[in-house]
TrEMBL record:
Family recorded in the similarity comment: Belongs to the FliG family.
UniProt-listed InterPro entries: Flg_Motor_Flig, Flg_Motor_Flig_C, FliG_a-hlx, FliG_M, FliG_N
Summary of the function given for this chain in its UniProt record: FliG is one of three proteins (FliG, FliN, FliM) that forms the rotor-mounted switch complex (C ring), located at the base of the basal body. This complex interacts with the CheY and CheZ chemotaxis proteins, in addition to contacting components of the motor that determine the direction of flagellar rotation.
Flagellar motor switch protein FliG N-terminal domain location: 10-108
Upper taxonomic lineage: Bacteria, Pseudomonadati, Pseudomonadota, Betaproteobacteria, Burkholderiales
Domain Flagellar motor switch protein FliG C-terminal: 221-327
A Pfam family that the UniProt record links to this protein: FliG_N
Entry protein name: Flagellar motor switch protein FliG
Length: 336
């Protein structure tokens, strides 16, 4: 287990660089960051009271080296795409493609929701049709979307999840209309990072973030409406106990990223099999210390246990996305 993971070190390096730039330049950089990045960097800067000169010099040297490797081929990529397509295809055909390619250029209304707390977003969307809510939530990060859904009634939450699971992308014109509706209520926001939106995987990832009690209720509701759809969602879900599916090498990679206190809390709600797997993938001394810590730790809230388990699952998903580990599944798809 590591005292500091790569994400923490990267955040500290970024914080040091921003503090070195001064207030005006740092503010300009912040304008191009997402809400989670701003919060993470703000918290990191607030914690860094004293920084050794050697560390500052290391960060600045690293930034200088990276900056030398970067080069912008064109000043405005959007305008370049438009010009090239119009010359190659003519105005009519090009304009049809341009709308699709650059559809994420103006989604300020929807993007603004990412800067709001779950309660405010839920209040704004509560009276909208489930299809509209689904189309908006798939633009948010899964943890924010799940927090919003928890604040809906059980029936409304489940109706929205069914629509997320059956959502097959969003047409540019529909996205534009949706954004215009949100823009009438909200103001500001930056560009939206586009991705494949909606579908079974999106619903599964959102449900994963909700906790066991809500998860069971949602899946039961979906199963009554469409048993095949519920099964597809379950096939794409990844639970804490699925850590058992990791091979020992992958499991050790995960443990290196997890803080000791977080691991203790997460294991309070784990099966004996999973606990034993953790012990097997640690040194005998570390395993013995962990056993003692688990035994001496008194009762903890279920919400605390689930929160730490979610953090471990986030680490697993990141390592899977980076190709560092592979998670076998029981279905036809052998990878997460």
């Amino acid at each position: 287990m590591a005292g500091k993971n790569n994400d923490d070190e990267g955040a500290e390096n970024a914080a040091i660089l921003l503090m070195s730039l001064g207030e005006e330049e740092a503010a300009s950089v912040f304008k191009h960051l997402g809400p989670k990045e701003v919060q993470k960097l703000g918290e990191t800067i607030a914690k860094m009271k004293i920084i050794p000169r050697e560390r500052v010099e290391q960060v600045l040297d690293k930034f200088t080296e990276l900056a030398k490797e970067q080069h912008s081929l064109v000043a405005d990529t959007d305008e370049y795409v438009k010009a090239v397509l119009r010359k190659a295809l003519g105005d009519d055909k090009a304009n049809m493609l341009i709308d699709r390619i650059l559809q994420g250029s103006d989604v300020s209304g929807i993007e603004s929701l990412k800067w709001m707390d779950a309660g405010s977003v839920a209040e704004l969307l509560r009276n909208e049709h489930p299809q509209i809510i689904a189309a908006i939530l798939v633009h948010l990060d899964q943890d924010q979307a799940s927090s919003v859904l928890k604040l809906f009634t059980e029936r409304q939450r489940n109706e929205v999840l069914i629509r997320i699971a059956t959502l097959d992308g969003i047409q540019p014109t529909a996205l534009k209309d949706l954004n215009e509706v949100m823009s009438k209520i909200l103001a500001g926001g930056d560009r939206l990072k586009k991705a494949s939106l909606g579908g079974v995987k999106a619903a599964a990832e959102i449900i994963n973030m909700m906790g066991s009690s809500v998860e069971t209720s949602a899946l039961d509701y979906i199963r009554e409406a469409d048993n095949d759809l519920a099964q597809k969602i379950m096939d794409n879900m990844f639970t804490f106990e699925d850590l058992n599916k990791l091979d020992d090498k992958g499991f050790q990679s995960v443990l290196k990223e997890v803080q000791s206190d977080s691991l203790i809390l997460a294991l309070k709600g784990a099966t004996s099999d999973l606990r034993e797997k953790v012990f097997r993938n640690m040194s005998s001394r570390a395993a013995e210390t962990l056993r003692e810590d688990l035994e001496s730790r008194g009762p903890v809230r279920v919400s605390e246990v689930e929160a730490e388990q979610k953090e471990m699952l986030k680490i697993v998903r990141r390592l899977v996305d980076e190709g560092q580990i592979v998670l076998a599944s029981g279905g036809a798809d052998d990878f997460l």
